[in-house]
Design goal:
This protein is mainly α. It has helices at about 1-15, 25-30, 30-60, 65-75, 85-100, 105-115, 120-135. The protein has one domain: bsu32300-like (Four Helix Bundle (Hemerythrin (Met), subunit A)).
């Protein structure tokens, strides 16, 4: 399951990177691009959370009380680099915005994640891959 989700996550990132050259004006005008970015960011974050929850269960770590805690627990266990914990927790918060505030999403914020934070997913993938390699 973890490898499957990692593969999906890499696919989502590849698709989002295809849109990195999109201008904010294009993003605002084209509802298909906006909806694609919103949904793909949502599913990418869900993949990270699924992976995190599975690793927490397999490693017998304490159970998270919310999505932000998934990343906190992984950082406490030195599975994720703690220097990026704020970024990962922001990712969990952004997921909640995408899911619960979908009717009033801020285009500037979503576009900002597309332009500035895809690297956070790369850090997550690299850390999880390293953890899996050493735990085999």
């Amino acid at each position: 399951m973890i490898q499957e989700r990692l593969s999906k996550l890499e696919g989502y990132l590849s698709e989002l990177r295809d849109l990195e050259s999109t201008t904010f004006q294009e993003y605002q005008i084209n509802k298909f691009i906006r909806k694609f970015v919103e949904r793909t960011l949502h599913t990418a974050i869900e993949a990270c959370l699924d992976i995190g929850r599975r690793i927490i269960a397999l490693a017998n770590l304490r159970q998270p009380e919310d999505n932000k805690a998934v990343f906190t627990i992984l950082a406490e266990a030195d599975i994720l680099p703690s220097v990026y914990l704020n970024n990962f927790q922001a990712m969990a918060g952004f997921r909640n915005v995408l899911v619960h505030e979908y009717a009033g999403l801020d285009d500037v914020a979503v576009f900002g994640v597309l332009k500035k934070h895809l690297g956070d997913f790369d850090i997550f993938i690299k850390a999880i891959t390293a953890y899996l390699a050493q735990s085999i």
